[in-house]
Amino acid sequence: MSELAAYNFAYLDEQTKRMIRRAILKAIAIPGYQVPFASREMPMPYGWGTGGVQVTASIIGPDDVLKVIDQGADDTTNAVSIRAFFQKVAEVAVTTHTGEATIIQTRHRIPEETLKEGQVLVYQVPIPEPLRFLEPRETETRKMHALEEYGLMHVKLYEDIARHGRIATTYAYPVKVHGRYVMDPSPTPKFDNPKMHRSEALQLFGAGREKRIYAVPPHTDVVSLDFEDHPFEIQTFDKPCALCGANHVYLDEIVLDDGGKRMFVCSDTDFCETRRAEGHTGEMLAPSQEAAE
Amino acid sequence: MYVAVKGGETAIANAHRLLADRRRGDRNLPAITIEQLIEQLGLGVDRVMAEASLFDRSLAALALKQSRGDMIEAIFLLRAYRTTLPRFGTSKPVETGSMQVERRVSATYKDLPGGQLLGPTFDYTHRLLDPSLLEDGMVDQAVERPGTPDHVMRVSDILDGEGLIEPDGEMPEDHVAGDLTREPMEFPMQRDLRLQALARGDEGFLLALAYSTQRGYGRTHPFVGEIRMGLVEVELEVPELGFTVSLGEIRVTECQMVNQFKGSAKAPPQFTRGYGLVFGQSERKAMAMSLVDRALRADEFGEDRLAPAQDEEFVISHCDNVQATGFVEHLKLPHYVDFQAELDLVRRMRARHAAEMNRDIDKEAAE
Amino acid sequence: MQIHETSLTGGFTNPVLDSQNVFRTVMNCMAQPGTIGEVAMGVEPPAPLGAAAGAVMLTLCDHDTAVWLGPHLLTPGITGWLGFHCGAPLTKEKTEAKFAFAHHKAPLPSLMSFAQGTLEYPDRSTTLVIEVEALDGGPTLELKGPGIRTTALLSPKGLPEHVLKQWAKNGQIFPQGVDVILTAGHRLAALPRTCKISLKEA
User: Given A35, A202, A219, which is nearest C123 (Cβ)?
Assistant: First the structure.
């Protein structure tokens, strides 16, 4: 029993990596199609990034530089935990800087900094099937994808418009990839959808509990579903980031006191810190730092 | 002025340290040993092995200790370990007909060859708390039946002899039993994979589903043909050596449920089977499994699939407690990015709603 | 089966890290058609299997993948190597092959004769690994599609003629269809089924 802890490089055994690698190649060859794979039990719970972790573990090597974010931030506990896992089992270099990373594993956000060729963005996906909430049966949704029968999805979006005057989907907003498969972008806010379109980076998606891997190769069309009279649009924020003054970025709402006072700051912590280091300031930035300018 | 919260790593480390402290509890009390867990909380250890699909009492007991007695957490620990183990081969199917039975009961025959053997059961205990267990008092030696037969006939074989029950699991000769821990799942599923999923499935979930079939949600008219519990030999065929090697004995519980079936134009009336097989001693699980197995065979017998227990995708996709607990509990992870998106939408919709109301009021006022 | 000396040697020196390295090369080539990758480590499969083709075999094939070998590669040395290093089962049925390895010196069966996947499971199609004479010096092909910003160029020499002819058909049955990895010695390039190929006028 003392021999328990002898794990392979990047935790997964080689046979498992081969199986996942084969799935990744097919996923790249069929953009947006969910390749079934025999997901393994990982040492972290299902729903906490096991799919992303398996994808990362299957592609990562000693030369990689890994960044892990959750909600856009490098310091959220689950991101810290996953980063520590790879430092332990794969001894890779890690970074919080988007530009330095070769692999970025993410939950719920795409970094603000434009990704470059050669980078791989690995998404943690809870429910990979965009049609799941319209049709719970896998046997049915598989047929719908096979026949490119996506009418139900349009009906759902249109019902939103009828009821709310707008499409009421704000995250995990469905996209069509390479003009064929309707795909779930994972629960990123729809604010991030345009970043997927013709991105230079390779985007890989891992859903551990649901046992699916899918991909969007670089320079591939990713179009958010919409209607001529109700075109897709992203959220806008009324004010810039209170710390770095950035506009056109996704902001977190921070509640400051019991009286309902709140501020809005960048959800991408690396982006915000980099801007502040460059001297950009927002209205709530501590005065000592302002003075240092 | 605002300073962002940092220090996730320290927080995690401290939390785990506190967890270890709570797990150990009062240092003046002796630490519980793995051996004690195996010997004195053996049914808990059995459940961990069954739902982790790994037969190793020491590791299961270690998992149970590490998890502070949280069964699903222990199952999860053992499964995560199991995943990393290499496969040396596939054993021959265990021969439960040659089981060294420790318990064997049938509800369909009053007496039968091999007899009814109660074994170590809670049945017929009066559920009165026993104060003598507060002390480490003397416990009488068990009474052993002299000369246990090495082969106790299966009740299903008695029925099968008369052709009264469907044959036992017909799979093509060259069928290789599937393994859903190594291959992607696909629906509809073969019965071998379904049974594997049920054997690993959550005892509580299967119990509730089995119960629902008794209350009319997919009724199958079950009789317990037989429950048997005891030791079976696990054997591995080694082609290089040209013979079979015994790997040892494991304790299992098997339930064969006999269910009604009216017959069809093609087949004469016959009883049908529901099957349950579980690591260790776990009768409740084996019985529940056999009821759900039978319910899931609805299509084979041309029965309408109307009840939850008959719905293969529903049952198999949700019976795994490690998956279920992970996804339910993941809701406690931060979701503030998505929540922000929803907040923004609700605020905008409310603003529009308010604007419309005001316009209506203004309009009425103007009229 | 007789064990050939060449069957036991010539594998990865560090199987874990070498296969990771080769996989990343293949992944990048598959994600960016037209990109030529290089297998740098000393893999020496039995001739005439090339180094890159051998490295792909070691990286992706195992007990779970039926492998089809073209006539020129169906030698005791190569089948022994495949068995010893990968444990992969050989198949004569092209429609059962997860991977098919072929060599430009022997005729390649029609692309349509391999597994095409199904509409519901298009991933269940064969990946063909074709050894060509060289990845440059041949007629220039213009590539378009996912993974390519505008167009990419590739000039493989010795690519069986019918591959190009059948490629348009392969694209028409999308999402079904085969994927191709071209190898030449230590180098490789990939043509996923989404890739549109046209012969560039000289």
Answer: A35
